């Protein structure tokens, strides 16, 4: 698994409960540094002033959704070559492929588990690293034909439709909120154990 203590992660979500769970899972259990933003606009302001090793963003946010934020991130000088992970409750068939085709480097579905979140992020990072692999220098390009290719008839371009994110469902939000309430005792217990271990090691 990746050493998340070496990572500084920007997490973007308009639900405060999701930000708390994400931060607790990575900061307390894996010593990562997590910075949170409640909107895409806030995330871009933070990105203006800081550098990160990864960004994880919700897709269904008001004003600037995750797709629009991804577009802005790809243009930002502080985010060149940065993996961007989608975190979403959209789990219908084909959603994962659509999200990856939109340009995201990974996909995590909600509600996520505090104990397995790092594993899911690690899989996204591995996939991102494989995608960035440079082709071998031994690769020999295929020979090109001597003759000029025949002109192809013009094709009418199909109109592109703007992506409209599906509205998040109430039961997913309620489930995530209930999960946060269930995890709070676990988070507090973990913090207490970490403090005791820290005192014992001194």
Describe the structure.
The chain has 202 residues and is α/β, with parallel strands linked by helices. 44% of the residues lie in helices and 12% in strands. It is built from 6 helices and 5 strands. It has helices at 16-30, 40-49, 66-75, 95-101, 117-131, 170-201; strands at residues 8-12, 33-37, 54-58, 84-88, 106-109. It has a 5-stranded parallel beta sheet, with helices on both faces. Strand 1, helix 1 (16-30) and strand 2 form a beta-alpha-beta unit. Helix 1 runs parallel beside helix 6 (170-201) and helix 2 (40-49) packs parallel to helix 3. It is globular, with a radius of gyration of 21 Å. It starts with 7 loop residues before the first strand and ends with a helix.
Low-pLDDT residue intervals, each spanning 5 or more residues: 155-161, 166-173
* H and E string: EHEHEHEHEHH
Largest β-sheet summary: 5 strands, parallel
In whole angstroms, the N-to-C terminal distance is 28 Å
Name the structural class. alpha/beta
Helix content: 40-55%
Measured on Cα atoms, how large is the radius of gyration?
21 Å
Strand content: 5-15%
Please give the order of strands in the largest beta sheet: 2-1-3-4-5
Shape: globular
Quick one: how many beta strands?
A: 5
List the total number of helices: 6
Mean pLDDT: 79
